[in-house]
Amino acid sequence: MTRSAPSAPPPPPDGAAPDPTGVPDGGPAGPEGLGRPRLPSPLQEVREPAFERRGLRLLLKRDDLIHPLVGGNKWRKLAPNLRAAAESGAPALLTFGGAYSNHLRATAAAGRLLGLPTIGVVRGDELADRPLNPSLAHCRADGMRLWFVTRAEYRRRREEAWLAELRERFGPVYVVPEGGSNTAAVEGCVALGEELRGLADVAAVACGTGGTLAGMAAGGPPAVGVPVLRGGFLAAEVRGLQEEAFGAPRGDWRLAEGFHFGGYARTAPELTRFADDFEQRHGVAVERVYVAKLLYALTALAETGDLPPGAAVAAVVTGAPDPLTGP
Ligand SMILES: *Cc1c(COP(=O)(O)O)cnc(C)c1O
C-alpha cells in the first residue's frame, strides 16, 4: 500500500542535547516559525441592547486577533498539526477544501511562512479550467499546489484507499483533513475553552466541521454551537471528533439549529443588515460566513429567553472578514 509513511526525524547525534521541539536542524519548522501568536486572545465586552434587556452580558472572544495571516480558530487548529507535521519529517502537507475555504488559505499562508510545501485538494474539477477565484489565487500565490478533483472523488476524502492514491501521487505528505479538524486540532481548541473558564458562563461558536466546538466544549464553560451549514449532521460529527480525541463525549454543549440562512455562505438582507449594524455600533468587523450567523443567533436566543438568566455569554470571533472577498 504505502511507500509513503513519513519517516521519523533522525535522532540527535551522540552527545547532543535532544531538541525539545523535536524539529530537526534545518528541517521544516513547527508553528514557532509563524511568529508569536496573541494568546490568550483578548476578551472584549460589548453593550448590546438585546442582551442588556435580559440582564445578559455579551463578550467577544477575539480569536481573530491571534495572528494576522493564520487567524482565528485556524491558528488553534493548524498549530498542533504543523508541529506534528514537523515532527513526522514529512516534506509537505496536503489538505482539502472548497473553492472559498478559509482553511486552505490559512494552510497556504502557514506553508509560505514556514517554507513547508503545501498541496490543496480542491472540490470541483470544473474549476481547473477557469481563472482562479481570489481565494484560490491567493493560495497559489502562497505557493500552494492546487489539485482539482470531482465531487465524487472529494467525497472519498476520508477513505484510506484514496489517501494512499494521493500519497502515491504526491509522496510522503502529512495529511490534514478538511477544515483542519482532526484529533490534534480538537486538542488545540481545548485551550480556547480553558481561556474562557471563570470569565464566561456560556461559550458560543459558529460551526463548519465542528472541530472547534468539540475542543472548546471539552475545556470550557457550557457551550453552544451554531451550524452554518444545512443538514443536521453536525451533532454526530462533534461527538465523533470528541470520541476520537478524548475516548468519550466531553463537556456540556448543544447546537442552536435554524440559523444557517439556507446553507454555507448563503445570506439574507436581514443578516446583512444585522451584521452592518453590529459593525457600526461596536467598530468590530464581522466576518459574514460564520461570525455574522453566530452573533445573529445569540441575539435571537437572548430575545427568546433561551440563554441562562444573568449569564455572561462569550461569542468566539473565529475569524476576520476576508480582505479579498469582502466582509
Ligand atoms: C473555519 C471557520 C469556522 C469553522 O470551524 P470548525 O472547526 O470547522 O467548526 C468558524 N469560523 C470561521 C471564521 C472559520 O474560518
TrEMBL record:
Q: Which superkingdom? A: Bacteria
The residue range of the signal peptide is none
User: What are the residue boundaries of the Tryptophan synthase beta chain-like PALP domain, all occurrences included?
Assistant: 40-319
Q: Does the keyword NADP apply?
A: no
Q: Which Pfam families match?
A: PALP (PF00291)
Q: Where is the composition biased (Gly residues)?
A: 24-33
**Does the record's keyword annotation contain RNA-binding?**
no
- Residue segments, region Disordered: 1-48
The coenzyme or cofactor needed here is: pyridoxal 5'-phosphate
InterPro entries recorded for this chain? Answer: ACCD_DCysDesulf, TrpB-like_PALP, TrpB-like_PALP_sf
**Which keywords does UniProt give here?**
Pyridoxal phosphate
Q: Which family does it belong to?
A: Belongs to the ACC deaminase/D-cysteine desulfhydrase family.
Protein name (database record): Pyridoxal-phosphate dependent enzyme
Report the source organism: Streptomyces durbertensis
